[in-house]
Amino acid sequence: MSTLTDKKGFGTAPVFFTAISTILGAILFLRFGMAVGNLGFYGALGIIILGHMITIPTALAISEIATNKRVEGGGEYFIISRSFGLNIGATIGMALYFSQAISVAFYVIAFTEAFEPFFNWMLSSFDIALPRQVISVPAILILAYIVLQKGSDMGVKTLYVVVAVLFISLTLFFVGRTYFFEAGDYSQNFVFNNRNQFFVWFAICFPAFTGMTAGVGLSGDLKNPTKSIPRGTMWGTICGMLIYIFIIYKFSISLTPEEMSSSQLAMANVAVLGAIIIPLGLGASTISSAIGSVLVAPRTIQALAVDKSFPSVALNRWLAKGKGETNEPYNATLITIAIALVFVLMGEVDFVAQIISMFFMITYGSLCLISFLNHFGASPSYRPQFKSHWAISLIGFLLSMWVMFKINAAYTIAAYVVITLLYLYLNYIHKERGGLQKIFLGALFQLSRRIQLYMQKHRSYETDDEEWRPSAICISSNSFKHSKVFDLMKWISYKHGFGTYFHFLKGYYSKNTTTEAKQIVDKLIDEHHDQESSLYVDCMISPSYTTAIAQAIQSPSISGMENNMIVFEYRRNEAEAIEAILDNISLTRAGDYDVCVFSDANKNTHFKNGIHIWIRSIDILNANLMILLGFIILSHPDWKKGFVKIFSICDKEDVATTRKQLQELVQTGRLPITLSNIEIIAQEEDKSSKSLIKDKSSNAGLTIIGFREEQTKHSGSEVFEGFDDMGDILFVNANRQQTIE
Questions:
Q1: If you write DSSP's letter for every residue of 194-224 in order, what string do you get?
Q2: pLDDT per position as a tens digit, 392-447
Q3: Which residues partner with 648 through β-bridges?
Q4: How is 647-665 classified by DSSP, letter by letter?
Q5: How far apart are the C-alpha atoms of 319 and 310, rounded to whole Å?
Q6: 473 DSSP β-pair partners
Q7: Is the whole model's pTM more than 0.70, yes or no?
Q8: Is 389 exposed, middle or buried (0-12, 13-18, 19+ CB in 10 A)?
Q9: 409-429 and 349-377 are packed helices; what angle lies between their axes, rounded to 10 degrees?
């Protein structure tokens, strides 16, 4: 079976033109004048503002998610399914597909209205009342032929012509002058009338703004979706909003409310050569929007079929089948045209517009919810190049829900019942496909983390396929002597993970030691818990350091996730502390823990000198964990002026290969590091790795170095010695190789 990623050739322009030509479409020419006539300028302005309070957060969410995940064919469906999982993605994707397919009918019906002078002429001259279908049915059949024969390339080329016609039409509209304009009294239009009809007109006009996502459906045909989708979508949305505001202002100073309300082609009464150019602009905009929809909708259902969303294997295979090198969705286009034809035969502009509004609200609300949950979940793998704000996404989601109920509460409830039943059915036939829990687990993790920290700060004493997060524990008896390790634990646990610090209290568990332990915890909280701290502190009572470690590594984390890392700490001038650490490394490794040894230089940390990560030939397992830790630590506000620099020591003949591997790791892992901050060093026979590290990183804020357990068994404390003049060092020994997503 062919995929949706065989060949991509378009840039940003088709995304923008598809969006703007769909935004400036049927509703602009047929209904916005009527909306101003019925509601007044401020009522129409309210429609534009409320509509964009939903579409702008959605555009930002799409731009954000598209720059975090590789977006393939299927556009919005691909984004939803790869975030919420295939089952719920298919559920919303089917609703999205039907809205796109019905949109084809909507724009063809609207295209037919451009022939209103012809229908009026037939009625007045021959007393023949022709049905609109004499134009709309041939139009959709011709459209189907063009798209099926020429594919997306022809459709995209047509957009440039359409945008030119739209530009001319709008220019002639804006330069037009009327008797009402010459009179100079526009006060009757600058009002907010018929407020009880606001949401009726909102439902009719909202499809005008949904065009901003039209270009997203071309994702499978773009050279660089992560670049083209944000730019094209945002520019289309902003330009469309500004044009609509100017249009309703022009209406308000050009025509009386009665003139606007009585004619769906009121623009023709304002524009220069309006009787010709406005029907021409309407025809061009609606047919371009229909082309955009008929390009996008089949790609959505094709993507659904590629993901085997339908219960029939044969149906999935048939719908997924493409044509030619670009994998044009030929069969999916046939189905889309058939659905659109049904609505063309039975539909009317206002009725179809309201149906489309409800479908799009569900999709837009879902996209905003995905963005919000990704922000709230703070997944380490969520690193979009384009960033919105969680509050904007939350507002978009809540407004989508609220507006749906305001438009029609009964239809909204019915829509969500159908969506729920469809999801349950898909979940039943595809039990093996999860995904919904993935995005919510991140949010639940954050909620649990914050609740636990809140409870502790208020002195409450009551008590392999998963994405990796640090869940670190540290046990030390030097809590009131060494403060630097608290900083390290806060850096590791900030935002992306969890950290637990245990003060080791030597002794046996008793009432006295328990009382002492609570006092110690209170003191630690007072000294080390600021509002931004994500570190949980406690006290471990045990007869020896080794038994304390054994207790800690067997205890569950209060974050709800398993502890996976232990941090040992020592001052560099305390040689005896290293021996205690060496005695217990094997114990922690028996529990499959990653082991970090923090060497405190007892100096001020120079954050602006950055974090240096050293990768050597022995660090096959350690490298990815070291890099992940470097960027997790860097995300803490303490390091806001810092940076990460990666050094790799290798044999001379491996320099080119090593550089290529690191560059690919940076690009595929979307790591925020410039290539100039990657340095490959050829190993020299007369110079040890320690010498190289000291030469390059003596002034670093933090140096991360890997080590192996075998080294500690063979060389003992020498592994951690020889770095006396350097700053703080974090030695890392990974239990297994981590994946940088």
A1: -GGGHHHHHHHHGGGTGGGGGGGGGGGGBS-
A2: 999 999 999 999 999 888 888 888 888 888 888 887 887 767 555 555 666 666 66
A3: 615, 680
A4: EEEE-GGGHHHHHHHHHHH
A5: 10
A6: 500, 566
A7: no
A8: middle
A9: 60
